[in-house]
Design brief:
about 15% strand, 2-enoyl-CoA Hydratase, Chain A, domain 1, globular, Tail-specific_protease, 22 strands, 3 domains
């Protein structure tokens, strides 16, 4: 039975992968911050909201569960981790004192008691103040960078500090590490001291700005995340931000940010936005400084509140913002760099699929491989509902691009879904239909156990030639539905990395429809209501899509992906749908492709250098510490930079692979963007080689 279209239209945008409860803070909270030294106390309105949220979660969430002692313990641990992820504030004695609440939070939730959550937060607030005071007294001390010391920065799995003395030593090394980072970036001793003082002052200001709403949001998201990583509580401010995000009309750089420890981290690059087009910012990058215009001074933002950082980054369209970042690839010791991004609006047309052609000299023969880059599965809902015959959608654009590539007589086509976080489910189904005659594409199982099969009913096929689909660890949701269907029908080769594994569906509930408490607003709950399944019956949850041909990757699957979330819903299997294989891909051919691909990994200079870089990066990231000895630290950084330079030199000198440099786009700067990315896109070139091999083996 077809899943009802009006239901899809209601949640299609929500299928944009939400890898964590993070949205850019672009408005101040309406509640007043607590700027006194006193404790923050829960309000009666939030007590009532706690009861309602708990009831909604138990009754409406896809996962069948009840609040009990086991879940209470999980919430307790997650709340402590939310407040003190790196175990640099609480002492072991504090955590022991909190233990009386470990098995009581489930009862508190039902009763609307928030005392424990606020009690723990108030202790945290005091500990932050104490740490800042201790650090401020030692900023002017000179650090000896010739000593062979190291700072263990991954402390989440370590024990809580037993004594003040032990915690003081952690903080001494933390400050020394920050000072060394600044020294290696060229800062003088006087500048280093000033920057560290400013960071501590910002931390002090941030902790004093917390209010009753902030604490409630922190605690309730600890509750929701213990049930499922995509079920979140949105405060009124978060709800407003979410609506702005979904409209894709805000001005800025087009990136969603989150706070992690004292850093502002890039959580998602929005397709079609300025950061997406600039190709200089990536998921996981840490923003440590912000400057305005070409010549504006970089302002250090470590320790700032997220909303204050976002205020600096946002600005009028057409203006430049400078960001000092620590790249995610390279580990915590990666050298920082400054990038410039021209602010603008995120527009639907700039998310549009684009094409290019790779010209390959493969085994003495020339091949033309068409590439269609789909950054998201989009649909202009407003134009569609208004009956506009020219409404934009992924399926329409991809069908047009296929037609153009066929006119250019390409030998094969690659669909590039790297970093595509999802989008409209209907569009993912329609795009799949461009490559298969007809049949089921995805199954959706609701919380009541009912399963709906969603099919492509159009027998027409836009392209039936050699097909590859390129995915990476950040391809998720609707991307996984498309890639999974192409693989299950044996219609094309899946190339790249294991995808993210987000196989759940969310919907929004407005809490203000359930709670009346004066003029107080309570925000929304984003709730998991269903799961996706492939036509084979296997869930996309946790496991995602496993490629036919694996590419080397700097991303460790244990560090990113749905299966890294402890509360993620399980992978499971339901009954397979009724479908007919295309039989364009067979196991023998795939085995030959794997063999030739592995040979290139060992012999091609670009690929060898790329793998060398990955191995060095992973070696650094596998360590849970960094050296505090200046000579050692500098040597490690130089080694990574030398490898990266080697790759760039090899790519710029490579005469074999080229593009016709004719992207399909309506934006003036699209051609420049595509050209800039192609020079270093080793994986796309190798995907072209794989598809050329496939064509050769088929003849």
């Amino acid at each position: 039975m077809m899943y009802k279209k009006n239901f899809f239209l209601s949640f299609a945008l929500l299928c944009l992968v939400s890898l964590s409860p993070v949205y850019p803070a672009i408005a101040q909270s309406s509640a007043q911050p607590d700027t006194t030294s006193g404790d923050i106390e829960p309000s009666a309105g939030y007590s009532r909201a706690e009861q309602i949220i708990s009831f909604i979660l138990e009754k409406l969430h896809y996962r069948e569960f009840s609040f009990n002692d086991s879940l209470s313990s999980e919430i307790f641990e997650r709340y402590l981790k939310t407040l003190d992820y790196n175990k640099t504030y609480f002492l072991e004695s504090d955590v022991r004192a909190f233990a009386t609440h470990r098995l009581a939070l489930d009862d508190d939730l039902r009763a609307g008691r928030l005392d424990a959550a606020y009690e723990i937060f108030n202790v945290y607030k005091d500990r932050v103040r104490q740490r800042i005071k201790w650090a401020q007294a030692r900023i002017d001390e000179r650090f000896d960078f010739t000593l062979d010391e190291r700072y263990e920065y991954k402390r989440e799995d370590m024990k809580w500090a037993a004594t003040e003395t032990e915690l003081n030593e952690v903080w001494r090394k933390l400050l020394k590490n920050q000072a060394l980072e600044l020294k290696l970036s060229g800062k003088q001793p006087s500048e280093i001291a000033k920057i560290l003082k400013d960071r501590l002052a910002n931390q002090q200001r941030r902790i004093e700005q917390y209010n009753v709403e902030d604490v409630f949001r922190l605690f309730m998201n600890s509750v929701t995340a213990s049930i499922d990583p995509h079920t979140n509580y949105f405060s009124p401010m978060d709800s407003d931000n979410f609506k702005i995000n979904m409209s894709l009309s805000f001005e800025g750089i087009g990136a969603r940010l989150q706070s992690e420890n004292e850093y502002t981290m890039v959580y998602e690059i929005i397709p079609g936005g300025p950061a997406f087009k600039a190709k200089q910012l990536a998921k996981g990058d840490k923003i440590i400084g912000v400057g305005q215009g070409e010549n504006g001074e970089i302002q250090d933002v470590i320790g700032w509140r997220l909303d204050d950082v976002v205020k600096l980054i946002r600005g009028p369209k057409g203006t430049i913002v400078k960001l000092q970042i620590i790249p995610a690839v390279g580990g915590p010791d990666a050298p920082s760099k400054v990038i410039k991004i021209l602010r603008g609006k995120v527009k639907l047309e700039e998310q549009a699929a684009k094409k290019r052609v790779l010209s390959l000299n493969h085994n003495g023969k020339n091949y033309k491989i068409g590439v269609i880059d789909i950054p998201a599965f989009y649909l202009d809902f407003e134009a569609y509902h208004n009956g506009d015959p020219n409404y934009k959608s992924t399926s329409r654009d991809v069908e047009r691009l296929i037609s153009e590539l066929k006119q250019e007589k390409v030998d094969g086509i690659i669909i590039d879904l790297r970093n595509n976080g999802g989008g409209s489910l209907e569009e993912a189904i329609k795009v799949t239909g461009l490559f298969i005659p007809y049949g089921p594409v995805v199954q959706v199982r609701r919380s009541d156990g009912a399963v709906d099969v969603n099919s492509d009913d159009d027998p027409d096929v836009a392209y039936d030639g050699p097909l590859g689909v390129l995915i990476n660890r950040y391809s998720a949701s609707a991307s996984e539905i498309f890639a999974g269907a192409i693989q299950d029908y044996k219609r094309g080769l899946i190339i790249g990395e294991q995808s993210y594994g987000k196989g759940t569906v969310q919907n929004l509930l407005d809490l203000n429809s359930y709670i009346r408490f004066g003029d107080q607003r309570f925000g929304q709950i984003k709730l998991t209501i269903a799961k996706f399944y492939r036509i084979t019956g296997a869930s996309t949850q946790r496991k995602g899509v496993i490629p036919d041909l694996q590419m080397p990757s700097p991303i460790d699957p244990e560090d990113a992906g749905e299966d890294t979330e402890p509360s993620a819903l399980p992978w499971d299997v339901i009954q397979a749908a009724d479908y007919k294989l295309s039989q364009k891909i067979n196991g023998q051919v795939v085995s030959k492709l794997i063999k030739t691909h592995n040979e290139r990994l060992k012999t091609e200079p670009q690929l060898k250098a790329y793998i060398e870089e990955i191995e060095k990066i992973k070696e650094n990231e596998d360590k849970n510490y960094v050296s505090l000895k200046e000579s050692t630290r500098k040597k490690e950084r130089d080694e990574i930079e030398q490898i990266r330079k080697k790759i760039k030199d090899l790519m710029s000198k490579s005469p074999e692979n080229a593009s016709d440099k004719k992207p399909d786009s309506q934006s003036e700067d699209a051609e420049e963007t595509v050209q800039a990315s192609e020079e270093e896109d080793i994986l796309l070139n190798e995907s072209g080689e794989i598809l050329a091999d496939f064509i050769r083996f088929q003849r």
